[in-house]
Structures are given as structure tokens and as C-alpha cells.
Amino acid sequence: MFIAAANLGNVHGAFGPDGNMFGFSYSMRRGEIAYLHMIGVYPDHQNEGIAANLIRENQTYWESEGVSTLTLTFDPLEGANANLYLKDEYDHPGWIRGFYPDYYPGEEDAHRFRVEYPFDSSRPERLREQYTDPEATLLAISDEGTVASGRSLATYDSSSGRWEVPSDLPGSVAVEFPWNASELSERRQVSDDTGSDVESQWLDAIKDVFGRLVSGTEDARDGDRRYTVVDMDPYEGSAPYDGENWGAANRYVLVEQT
Ligand SMILES: CC(C)(COP(=O)(O)OP(=O)(O)OC[C@H]1O[C@@H](n2cnc3c(N)ncnc32)[C@H](O)[C@@H]1OP(=O)(O)O)[C@@H](O)C(=O)NCCC(=O)NCCS
Fold it and tell me: Quick one: which of 65, 177, 248, 256 is 20 to 30 A from 236 by CA?
């Protein structure tokens, strides 16, 4: 890490009063853009705001170095990451600028969102003005953790094996997703609708839905309406998963780009 920092980029550390490092980030510059490549916080100190402070430090540092935008990618089913990266309270709030399905060559089902923090904040400001409470839920979670077919506007087409997005969507839509995708993976529960386990169902559903709607995505077809993800509302409550029911969940908020 020190060698990488000396040669290529920048390492920020978060230290406790005793001098122990609780978290770090690694970022590098390419021209006008800085890439946040890695960020990690020691498990005993997660959810204390340490990573959020590392994002702030990265923004301050790279802005002072004269770059125009900080960017990074993350797995859309990782709620803690989504919450962290899409927090409203940064000096330069982020927004999703692309969705990349099957991001890693040879590895299926590893999808990524790309977040941008432009240091000229005009675009996020404009987006916040457009933000309205979503009128429709494109993917909704059921009590069992599957995609809830009754409440979800997207429908599963068993002949194509794809989730279809209706064309008459309102200007803002919600996409719910499970609080803890790895918990789903451990349970390997099978969904009645698709015959696949619940984690695979979510991976397929978000691939089809975000692939069709989110700007910067190769899968988006000509004439498709383009949306951008402006926020992630984390589940509010003490027990998102009680061992039996999933209840409410995290949700992304998308607004149409005009
Ligand atoms: C992602 C990671 C860096 C976050 O670090 P952190 O210091 O815990 O982050 P913060 O405390 O600043 O913010 C996390 C937020 O997510 C929330 N959160 C945690 N788990 C969540 C979940 N499953 N769904 C939604 N929100 C969640 C926390 O409540 C917190 O929000 P709040 O500040 O509004 O209360 C840390 O979890 C980590 O190191 N994970 C493993 C490595 C990793 O995934 N790195 C990123 C990809 S390289």
C-alpha cells in the first residue's frame, strides 16, 4: 500500500486515539479524474461514520489537487456501501452515472454502479430540486425476501428469463432491495416465480431494471427513458431481518433525466 501510494496514488488513514488505524482508502489520479479504488473500515469500528469521513477527506484532498471529479464503483446490493456513497451531507454529494452488469470478466453476477462526485456541485443541486417521493415501485421486496410480484411494476417473463420494465413509468421510481444480500445468499431460498434462489433473483432483476433505465449503460436501448439514481433510503428500524420476515428494505430513488 505504501509503495502504491508512493508511486501511483494517495492513501488516507483513519486513526484512533491510541494511534491504531481503523480504516483507510486508496485513490489515484488520471488526468482530471480521481478514482477511489478501495475503502475499508475494521469490522469493530464500522457504522461509526469513519468511511464517510474518509470520503470527505478524499473530496477535500482531490479538489485541492485541482481534479474535477472523484469517482468510484460499488456493488448495488451492498446496502452499507450504497448508504455511504450516496449520503446527502457531503460538500459534493454523489450521483450514479452508470450501471455496469457483469463488471468483472469471467465472473457473472458482479454488477457495479459508478458514482461521481463532481466538485462543481451544480448538477447534484439540480437533481435535488427534481427529487420527489417515488410514485411507483419498480422492484419491491416481499416478506420472504423475494421480489414481490404484486407490488413490483417490473414483471418476470419466464420465456425470455428477463424482468420487463413497463414503458409508462412516472418521473421518479423506487427500487427496493434486501438489507443484507449476503444473508440471502446464505439462505439460498428458492423463489416461486423464477425458480432461482433469492440472491440470484435479485441479481437478475437489478441487472435487467438498471440495465434498461440507468444512463451510461450499454444495455439501454434507443428510445428508452433514462433515469439516474439520486438517493438510497436505508431501512429505518431496528430489525430489518427478524429470522423469518424481511419486511421493509433499503430502496434506491431514481429520477428521470430531462
Ligand atoms: C463499506 C464500509 C467501508 C463502510 O464503512 P463505515 O465506516 O461502517 O461507514 P459509515 O459508518 O460512514 O456509513 C455506513 C452507513 O451505512 C449504514 N448501513 C450499514 N449496513 C447497512 C445495510 N446493510 N443497508 C443499508 N445501510 C447500512 C450505516 O447505518 C451507516 O449509515 P449512517 O451513517 O446513516 O448511520 C465498511 O462496511 C467496510 O469496510 N466494508 C467491507 C469492505 C468494503 O465493502 N469496502 C467497499 C468496497 S471496496
Answer: 256
